[in-house]
Design goal:
Length: 349
């Protein structure tokens, strides 16, 4: 069992409101025939603002894929170092005490992985193990938590650092004009998180069980088309109906591992795939609306941060100061595949 300590969240310096983004999209596509529908769908995302790694005018100019990749590498290293230093301080550990570094990111590509740069840039041991996770999308943060918990169980006394870094704005494609492209452009935000899982004492979320679930033949629901201009996000509207399939699996997982119904848990850390995903979780798990307030808050203030989301919501849970030792909770995220990653456990101090 591992204990997730308080995550560190680092935002890029630029911010854009939803009104500003709508203006940008209208300027790019002034004659689109479905603007009233698009505007309504964007407003329904309930995203008020987001942080982006470059000014919006630079992003919509769409420099070459090579230049975007250079920005990705530069900002990944810069923002991740800040997040890691704060996360280590939160966990009251030094870099040399970390045994494994897991990095999740699906919004760019680096080789070697960011793990190698972090080990060189900060005083980690040369023997530190590396585990990059690149293709699980929004589910990757929860997957990293589950793999870290398994590592801590296999190696008692180990400490695992999880870094999630998503620069979604670098995937913006200004020429795309499908309705799903407009919604995606108004939904995703940029952020970097770092979080330490300790296998010994600490304050936080002690992961006690985990599960993975993939709905077969749904590979087209969430995907990338890789073109000369970079990653083109593809989202099938069928993804909105997946929670109805996944919810019974989540319910059974909670009942078997925690011996409670989901509605009886004390806290939830849910990935903010969007307003509809949260609505469906509330409906199909039978939980009270206020139990997902922190996920709604994260969505409104930052947008969908892909693999960073669960750490952003977990950080808000720490900052709220409402948890007591012994509280039971569920963490879950969803991504390409269609994949669900979940874990349950206890708040400890």
């Amino acid at each position: 069992m591992g204990i997730l300590t308080k995550p560190a969240i680092v935002r890029p310096q630029y911010r854009i409101t939803q009104d500003e983004m709508v203006d940008v999209l209208q300027r790019l596509h002034p004659n689109h025939p479905d603007w009233s529908k698009i505007n309504r769908m964007i407003r329904n995302t309930q995203v008020n603002e987001r942080y982006i790694v470059r000014p919006i005018e630079e992003i919509i100019a769409h420099s070459r894929f090579e230049e975007r990749s250079l920005i990705y590498k530069e900002e990944m290293r810069r923002l991740s170092v800040q997040a890691v230093e704060q996360a280590l301080e939160n966990a009251e550990l030094e870099a040399f005490q970390i045994d494994l570094i897991i990095v999740t990111s699906c919004t760019g590509f680096m080789m070697p992985s960011l793990t190698a740069y972090l080990i060189s840039d900060l005083p980690f041991r040369e023997q530190t193990k590396q585990l990059p996770i690149a293709q699980l999308g929004c589910a990757a943060g929860a997957s990293a938590i589950n793999r870290a918990a398994e590592y801590c169980e296999a190696f008692p006394g180990a400490n695992v650092l999880i870094v999630s870094a998503e620069l979604c704005s670098l995937c913006f494609q200004p020429a795309e004009s499908a309705i799903s492209d407009f919604v995606s452009a108004a939904l995703f935000g940029d952020s970097v998180s770092a979080c330490v899982m300790k296998s010994t004492s600490g304050t936080g979320f002690q992961v006690e069980s985990n599960a993975s679930y993939l709905i077969k033949h749904t590979e087209n629901y969430i995907a990338y088309d890789v073109k000369d201009t970079g990653f083109h996000f593809v989202l099938d509207k069928q993804v909105m109906y997946t929670i109805e399939t996944v919810a019974p699996v989540m319910r059974e997982f909670v009942e078997e591992t925690v011996q409670r119904a989901p509605s009886d848990l004390d806290f939830f850390v849910f990935h903010t795939g969007g307003r509809r995903i949260l609505d469906e979780l509330v409906k199909h798990l039978g939980i009270a609306e206020q139990r997902v307030a922190l996920s709604r808050e994260s969505l409104a203030e930052c947008g969908n941060l892909s693999s960073v989301v669960v750490f952003d919501v977990l950080a808000r849970l720490f900052e709220a100061g409402t948890r007591s030792p012994g509280d039971k909770g569920l963490l879950a995220a969803f991504g390409p595949g269609f994949t669900a990653e979940m874990c349950a456990g206890t708040w400890v101090e």
